[in-house]
Amino acid sequence: xxxxxxxxxxxxxxxxxxxxxxxxxxxxxxxxxxxxxxxxxxxxxxxxxxxxxxxxxxxxxxxxxxxxxxxxxxxxxxxxxxxxxxxxxxxxxxxxxxxxxxxxxxxxxxxxxxxxxxxxxxxxxxxxxxxxxxxxxxxxxxxxxxxxxxxxxxxxxxxxxxxxxxxxxxxxxxxxxxxxxxxxxxxxxxxxxxxxxxxxxxxxxxxxxxxxxxxxxxxxxxxxxxxxxxxxxxxxxxxxxxxxxxxxxxxxxxxxxxxxxxxxxxxxxxxxxxxxxxxxxxxxxxxxxxxxxxxxxxxxxxxxxxxxxxxxxxxxxxxxxxxxxxxxxxxxxxxxxxx
Length: 339
Description:
By secondary structure, the protein is of the alpha+beta class.
């Protein structure tokens, strides 16, 4: 167990060095004390449960990079390493860039991309495609909503303008399939979106045709106490102001966001904040459950009187060869958007 702890504190899973160690770890897996998130990798179950989806994905990438130092991670795997926001359901696979001259079969867990010559950098000791190439590949192959999450965070993290980023993507993407879809997604990107949930909500608003909100507007407290609040979204409507607040679980449990406060304390502060905002407008709260059912989000927006200024539209401009087979959830979403 000591080696498991050492590996975990180094940000990696343990890779068994001998058959005897592997058999011993497998016995611990059967006993529920250890889990094996990927073939040949082991971590204490308690430690694994303490990580969110993103931290788990990064730990597996870091572990596989140590086992295969020649691997270059690309697509959403590189996006995770670069620190970009990525929709959680995309984190279950590893994406590896391989030269066109090399052959290798993809599996359900490891997807190999024939990228040709592309810029490679090291981030935290992990070889990845450069940030612009990573964003380009993600936007070319992902849906509009998934791509907007990544595009928003790329602009926010890099400090680049959408115009300058567009020029870079045009240069890197010359002759590549899906470049039109990538540039279309980027045209809607806004660095003021501060979380993946906010970006995903905005993407659905765009496709449904809802009036888009102002982002991160500063609101002065009506108590005259000098406090200011920044709701995620704000609509100024004839009937009054509506504030939109996205509730992600991280704001209550992520130490980087709670700053050492307990979940109960953070929730109490949120209730106080909401009461202050309610003095000048109505507060609409939504969460990931609302985003998983786009029709549910649409009903919520309709219920608060957010107008639909445009016709609903699907912004999936990807070539048919790059579109995944729709799941039941995706089919429901597509039907809801075009209804």
